[in-house]
Amino acid sequence: MKEIDAIFAVTDGLGIHREALVIPLGPATPGRVRRLPSGKLEIVVEASRPLEEWLRELPALIAAAS
Q1: What pLDDT score does 2 carry?
Q2: Domain spans of the chain?
Q3: CA gap 50, 66 in Å, rounded
């Protein structure tokens, strides 16, 4: 939940509605952000790096997937 709350803090700040997101419960390597066929953004937390470091890159990852 800590990771999801942190992602919401970033996406809320970008004006992205929470219902437009799919966030799997487990992290993965590599983490990723991609647009699903449904139009939602899937955000998979990077498992091999500290969360705070990865979150700083999240806005750019979202922009690249949009």
Answers
A1: 85
A2: 2-65
A3: 24
Cα distances (Å, whole numbers) of residue 2 to 5, 7, 17, 38, 39? 5, 9, 19, 26, 25
Q: Is 64 in contact with 39 (CB distance < 8 Å)?
A: no
CA proximity to 49, closest of 60, 57, 41: 57
Position 1 scores a pLDDT of 78
- The token pair at 34 is 């991609």
Confidence (pLDDT) at 65 = 94
Count CA atoms within 13 Å of residue 30 on its CB side: 4
Report which secondary-structure segment, H or E, holds 54: helix 51-65
| Mean per-residue pLDDT over the chain, rounded | 95
